[in-house]
Amino acid sequence: MNNNVMYRLSYGLFVITANENGFDNGCIINTAQQVTTSPNRISVTLNKSGKTHDMIKNTGVFNISVISEDAYFELFKHFGFQSGANCNKFNGFEAAKRSENGIFYLTAGVNSYISAKVVQEIDLGSHTMFIADVTDADIVSEIPSATYAYYHSNIKPKPQEKKSTKTVWRCKVCGYEYEGETLPEDFICPICKHPASDFEKAE
User: Fold this and answer.
1) DSSP per residue over 108-121, as a string?
2) Alpha carbon distance 100, 10 (integer Å)
3) Per-residue DSSP letters for 24-63?
4) How much is the mean pLDDT over the chain?
5) Which pairing describes strands 127-139 and 40-47: parallel, antiparallel, or unpaired?
6) Tens digits of residue pLDDT in 120-150
7) Rounded Cα distance, 133 and 30, in Å
8) DSSP 146
9) Contact status, residue 111 vs residue 13, Cβ threshold 8 Å
10) Which site in 9, 59, 99, 140 is 20 to 30 Å from 178, CA atoms measured?
11) What SS3 state is found at 199?
12) C-beta separation of 62 from 44 below 8 A
């Protein structure tokens, strides 16, 4: 089976944000979609190891900011390459406003936002799918939404050549590199949490 086919699916890219007890947090996801129009509901799927997951599970509310094609790689690094368990991602981050539910949404590098309230949870093992009612939404800009394919072709930097005699395994999702002759089968990327199957030996 060619697992690279999964990257041909038309994923969007989003920053999902939450607030719990006055603490703001957010992370990058590619798993938001509308599931019904009446009632207007969306689904999002988050890794259980992330802090944003726990905040949404505890509070039942969140915002989705739809990333647009003018987003810089720094946006992905800021919300995807560090953990809210170790830092406050909104400390000094100015490109955000609070919606009526009191949660931040982004105002740059995105074209819209959706506020939602969880009505159902589905346990998927390593992840939880949250089904939620849309409670608010608005347009931020008219710039097209960035797809997963667009991100890889136009936003994500191309890997830099490294002169090394060591074997390097590179994550096809975020670019993280693991050095070692073999990549453990149960290895999980420390940056984007993808499994060993999403790594390839660097040329």
Assistant:
1) SSEEEEEEEEEEEE
2) 30
3) EEEEEES--EEEEETTEEEEEEEETTSHHHHHHHHH-EEE
4) 91
5) antiparallel
6) 999 999 999 999 999 999 999 999 999 988 9
7) 19
8) P
9) no
10) 9
11) strand
12) yes
Report the candidate in 183, 157, 158, 178 with the shortest Cα–Cα distance to residue 168.
178
The predicted pLDDT at position 163 comes to 58
Say what the pLDDT of residue 117 is: 98
Closest residue by Cα to residue 79 from 130, 14, 31, 20: 14
Amino acid at 136: D
Per the document, the length of the chain is 203
Residue 126, phi then psi, degrees to nearest 5: -75, -15
Q: Band the pLDDT of 7: cuts 50, 70, 90.
A: low
How sure is the predictor about 162, in pLDDT bands with cuts at 50, 70 and 90? Answer: low
Segment 27-57, tens digit of pLDDT: 999 999 999 999 999 999 999 999 999 999 9
